[in-house]
Amino acid sequence: MAVVVLPAELGSAGIDRTAEAFVRWVRGYRAEAEMDHGYGMTRLRSKGSSPAPGYLRQLEALRGALDSGDMDSKRQAVTAALEQAKITDLPRSPDGRHVAADLMAFYFRSSDANDLCYRAAIGRDSCRGLDGSEQAPAPLKGRA
Length: 144
Prior knowledge:
- The protein is mainly alpha-helical.
- It has helices spanning 2-5, 11-28, 52-67, 71-84, 99-108, 111-118; strands at residues 34-35, 45-46.
- A two-stranded antiparallel sheet has the order 1-2.
């Protein structure tokens, strides 16, 4: 499914890396883990149940279409599944409503996607310090 919903510009290695990182995120998900409450927020929140069982059901429902060799059929199947799940926007972070939307949110809300968008090594989620901050980020080298 990653080949269908992630940018082809990532190339097969980049798509594989992103899919593997998403799988690691799912495997490392801890239900009821305390979430960051954010600055000025005093209410503590906990994560919900693992999305993995739902993801497995959704992938199983898409298996036939995803196993076909036709990319248009794959796209249509994923689009139909997202419409059926009433997904109209990407969540801010994976929320368990549908594996396709969550994989896209996982990537498109990432620092890597931000770098690819601007074609620069911005490293939005990295701690870089102030040295050199007056200079524009370096252009991306090769593929993301």
